User: Fold these one by one.
Assistant:
Number 1:
Amino acid sequence: MRRDATQPARQEFLSHVSDPFELFLEWMQEAEAAEPNDPNAVALATATSDGTPSVRMVLMKKVEGQGFCFYTNSESQKGQELAENPQASMCFHWKSLRRQVRISGVVSELPPEDADAYFHSRSRGSQRAALASRQSRPLKSRGLLEVMVHEYELAYPDQIPRPPHWKGYSLKAQRIEFWQDRRDRMHDRVVFQHTAEGWSKTLLYP
Ligand SMILES: Cc1cc2nc3c(=O)[nH]c(=O)nc-3n(C[C@H](O)[C@H](O)[C@H](O)COP(=O)(O)O)c2cc1C
């Protein structure tokens, strides 16, 4: 049986909301309660300077000053694409809630202190793996990666240094669209566009 995820009391919710960040944080909180794992997982689309697109999942770790932040290896495919073309998009899909949020804008690097703080908040295992990984480049064998990780463990018994190419990025939103499933394909869609005067809001046909 198919469930209409929109509660009756919330039917006019999307038409009344005026702050896209308030709504995003509310939906994220609801996703944290509803999704079995990684409610902050998001598809991140980047493109080369000639417009060839690519997409992959990342974890969106925080929302800060209109920016949706994630961490990755700047030498990876996505890192190289962002260096040549900072335009990017994100798409959250919360299956259990039947919701989608699309965000697009320009990506910039977070300050190194921010990357340091997040890097050192992760488990030692994750830190070692980040240090050893030449993300997105060919790997001769799984064994080679495991040897490298072991060597880093011996080399850094105390604090593991953040590799300089492991960075934080912020996608500063220029457009945020919310989509909520409704019965009979009468879905709600509302898009917020950043303008000189603030956020404009438009309802869209489903
Ligand atoms: C749920 C999920 C979360 C992920 N989170 C991250 C992340 O936060 N940072 C990251 O670099 N890769 C993350 N990955 C791996 C990426 O999807 C991707 O394989 C990797 O970053 C290399 O992408 P690229 O070759 O396009 O640069 C995640 C994968 C999944 C499935």
Number 2:
Amino acid sequence: MTEKTIIITGASDGIGRAAATNLKASGANVVITGRSMEKTKAVAEELKVPYYISDFSKLDEVRKLGSELIKDYSTIDVLANNAGGIMGSDRILTQDGYDRAIQVNHLAGFLLTNILMDTLCASKATVINTSSAAQQFSGEIDVNDLKLEKGYSRMGAYGKSKLMNVLFTKELHRRYNPEGISTAAFHPGVVRTNFGEEFGGSTKFLYSGPMKYVLRTPEKGADTLVWLATSIPGKDWASGEYYSNRKIKRPNRQAEDTQNAKNLWEISLKATGIA
Ligand SMILES: NC(=O)c1ccc[n+]([C@@H]2O[C@H](COP(=O)([O-])OP(=O)(O)OC[C@H]3O[C@@H](n4cnc5c(N)ncnc54)[C@H](OP(=O)(O)O)[C@@H]3O)[C@@H](O)[C@H]2O)c1
């Protein structure tokens, strides 16, 4: 049997890197993407895997990544949309005109998935979206407001972007499960990574105090991603659901609103220039 081709975004560090390491060791054809050339190249050389560089705060770079991947891979068995993080206390719009957290954490993965859609359908692929328990604390979401003009807070923006990951998963399932795609969102736990470091906070410092008993290693944080990538959808797990610790978990009630999911899909198509 040929090994699976597994593309993991945000694999230059943290959870994505740990997942790539595990999956490569199990024999998969792992392909990694990162934003930093230096970090991504170093991980790729260590794991002996191909790599691609793309900054998700620039949609043109996501488009370039998508076209390179289409050209280089005729089969993609798993796409893990994992890149992302928590942004700063001030609202910053990207050059594309969207809130930075919404673009990096939601729009970029949405665009990449849609660019790869024909290959993903033909491959009967699994699409895994790294969400977060923070989606529970998003406040009221307005899926029309991709600039977050109606009030901004660091955690609110992060929570909304992670709720969008769940809404995206549900609508991707509704539209493309009949075409062969299986998809799930998951919460990795609270994991000791660079998470938040870029904007003046990090989970890392917590590891030296009592929180070290609560925080996970990146390897443990990657466990549900690795499990979704290597087990059988429809048998071992259910497409369209939100997981934590390999179990279905009920997400924010707003994620169950199918109209919200449909609207977000349509608005994201327009925002990314697909339609
Ligand atoms: N750590 C936690 O406790 C936790 C909890 C819940 C959910 N999550 C989610 O887990 C995912 C991975 O985060 P992590 O904890 O592993 O953090 P991390 O160690 O900071 O890794 C983040 C990864 O995303 C990439 N990335 C960040 N900004 C990017 C951008 N603008 N364009 C392209 N790639 C970008 C980084 O690339 P470079 O390093 O090359 O810049 C890196 O590979 C995120 O989606 C995060 O929201 C984390």
Number 3:
Amino acid sequence: MWFYLRVLRLPRIVFIILFLLLAPALWLWPGSGRTDAALLDETIRIAIVKAAQEVTIAGDGLLVTSDSGLPLDLELPVTVKAAKDGLLVNGRPFQRLVFASSSAVLVNNKPYRGLAELSKNGNGILVVNQLALEDYLVGLINCEISSAWPIESVKAQAVIARTYALNRKAARSGALYHLESSVIDQVYDGSQIEDSRARRAVSETEGEVLTYDNSVIQAFYHSSCGGRTEASENVWGARLPYLKGVDCQYCLNSTAAVAWEQKLPLSVLEDRLQAAGHKISGLSDVKPGSQNSRGRLKQVVLVAAKGGLSLNGDQFRKAVGYGVIKSTRFSVQVAKGEASFSGTGNGHGVGLCQWGAKQRSLEGFDYHEILSYYYPGTKLEKYSDVS
Ligand SMILES: [Zn+2]
């Protein structure tokens, strides 16, 4: 320990203070003897880097620990490389490295609150950011929406992001991490785009989650629905009573965010379908199948010389690209070897419509009303009263 202090050439008292500040974070470390969890904030573990061959860590006054859990003397910034069976730092092997800060750990130059844990996973390095749940939410707000939106819609976003995260944490309690940092779960990019309005929305809803039958719900949400939100069973097959789909004319006020056009040569479409594993060749036409009661396509029919097929709406979006075909609410026409898509809505359409929530907030609804509208039958409760 004192050797470590000498390397960094800082007064001993600075490190004593730093260690006292960071000690609670270390206690949260899995397997490190969590002695008084009830007194500590709820934490969450996010995968922020996956399958990297090297990762650079920097930051002021970081406390570094290795496999043993004891402080380690590493000169920062440091580049950690993937080795065959673990990690390598300047030729020294490690299984796991933890970098903790009372302010921010820089992972590949991006700041993150809490801890950054590095380990070998599969073919590369996995970096998990473990931090207080409420801090995670503050960082997330401006990745998902803009904190400049009316505050009640920002508060609604804070509640659903917290609800979603805690639901996933419970479902993945034995896993290396609870959430991806991409659209697969919730977009999160560290602490660099935190601001005071995001923090206000999180603190004014502190600890609040949506529940149904005394359980934290699966609070799916999406960018815009285009007129009616979708029932969960129409996307994923599972029927959830609070995700039945509701009318939402509100997002239609934001035409630029809701309407989309896309042109794709049939050859490109065919390549993407093949890359997704479909044995199709000579694609000549794309036809919309029947619509469900929410105005979304149940099927997309692909006419081809060989291997023509019919995909359900979500399968089609997945194969061609969720960012290319933004929703399953579209029409399509084929002419001169090119498919022209014209659609409304962005995302799967299940749960809260973010642009609709923004408009409802502008019209004077508070976040309780917004949430109970998009998740009918749910209750807003303190997580501490549910868990
Ligand atoms: Zn909507």
